Amino acid sequence: MTNIRSPLTPVKILMQGEKGGNEKFLPIGVMAVEPLLNRKRDAIAKMFSAIAPKYDLMNHLLTGWLDVRWRRFATEWLPASVQIVIDVGTGTGDFAFAVLDKCKEATVIGVDLSERMLNLAKRKAASTSKGERSRWLLADGLNLPFRNEVADAVVSAFVVRNFEDLTKGLREIHRVLKRSGVAIILEFCQPPRSWWWTPIGLFVRYVVPIAGRFCGNAVAYSYLTASIRTFLPAEAVAEKMILVGFRKVSWLTLTFGVVTLFRAVK
Ligand SMILES: C[S@@+](CC[C@H](N)C(=O)[O-])C[C@H]1O[C@@H](n2cnc3c(N)ncnc32)[C@H](O)[C@@H]1O
């Protein structure tokens, strides 16, 4: 297991069990987000369907368009020659499209629980030439409707922390990958406790839920805050990847630890 230091950002891994891990923190909506934090599949699907129309815009505004750069940066870790790529939790398809930009031979199959998110992805695909190299599937990432060893790569951005069972989700990704296939995962892992994190932490804790209120989705954005703060640190995710059989597991943090990018090989 290696921890690659990004030339762009410092790496700080918060160890599991370190102070502050699971404290109560939500400024609003604690009761409302509880079923979502328990990761009930239907509740998650319903929540993402509710925010689908504003999802892209809110993503861009809350991250200052860094989300676009994070996905593009993540595709740099993919071999350009991949042919079949599965995007688990594709949402409105932006990671799938970034993969298609980088990998000219690839067909991407976007899988998601939310039909509304998928419809937006399909609409985007239809408006570009990339539509021919994309497929969209309503399915659960914890039970992927594919045979073993079909994909050259599996990608997933901002999804695995929503899984009811992270180990099961990682096992599914591992199962559908061909031998030597690559998994690329972007996620908001439990943030570091460092001076540089303080303003970012305050932003996640207070500004994100308020922004959610203004766009009419207070619960969804309180859930976003809560799910980031209760998810595992990167090292613990990497350990689970190794446990399900991945090798060469590496990760780096982007933008002062806001996002973690994992790469692993089957
Ligand atoms: C935060 S969005 C990320 C969307 C997209 N990957 C991106 O980069 O913007 C999370 C997506 O994962 C989907 N999702 C959550 N749990 C899932 C599961 N078990 N199986 C499939 N999709 C899931 C949600 O419906 C939602 O569209």
Could you provide a short overview of the structure?
This protein has 266 residues and is α/β, with parallel strands linked by helices. It has helices spanning 30-37, 41-63, 66-75, 94-102, 115-126, 166-176, 197-214, 218-230, 234-243, and strands at residues 2-3, 84-88, 107-112, 134-138, 151-157, 177-187, 247-254, 259-265.
Q: What series of H and E elements makes up the topology?
A: EHHHEHEHEEHEHHHEE
Largest sheet: 8 strands, mixed
- CATH superfamily membership, which one? Vaccinia Virus protein VP39
Structural class: alpha/beta
Class in CATH? Answer: Alpha Beta
CATH third-tier fold name: Rossmann fold
Identify the bound ligands.
Answer: S-adenosylmethionine
Secondary structure layout:
Elements: E1 2-3, H1 30-37, H2 41-63, H3 66-75, E2 84-88, H4 94-102, E3 107-112, H5 115-126, E4 134-138, E5 151-157, H6 166-176, E6 177-187, H7 197-214, H8 218-230, H9 234-243, E7 247-254, E8 259-265
Parallel strand pairs: 1-7, 2-3, 2-5, 3-4, 5-6
Antiparallel strand pairs: 6-8, 7-8
The structure holds S-adenosylmethionine.
S-adenosylmethionine is lined by residues 44-45, 48, 89-91, 94-95, 111-114, 117, 140-142, 157-159, 162-163.
Would you kindly provide a written description of the structure presented here, covering whatever features stand out?
- This protein has one domain: Vaccinia Virus protein VP39 (Rossmann fold).
- With 266 residues, it is an alpha/beta fold.
- The model is unreliable at 1-31 (pLDDT under 50).
- It is built from nine helices and eight strands.
- The protein has helices spanning 30-37, 41-63, 66-75, 94-102, 115-126, 166-176, 197-214, 218-230, 234-243; strands at 2-3, 84-88, 107-112, 134-138, 151-157, 177-187, 247-254, 259-265.
- It starts with a strand and ends with a strand.
- It has an eight-stranded mixed beta sheet, sandwiched between helices.
- Helix content is 43%, strand content 19%.
- Bound molecules: S-adenosylmethionine (SAM).
- S-adenosylmethionine (SAM) binds at residues 44-45, 48, 89-91, 94-95, 111-114, 117, 140-142, 157-159, 162-163.
- S-adenosylmethionine binds at residues 44-45, 48, 89-91, 94-95, 111-114, 117, 140-142, 157-159, 162-163.
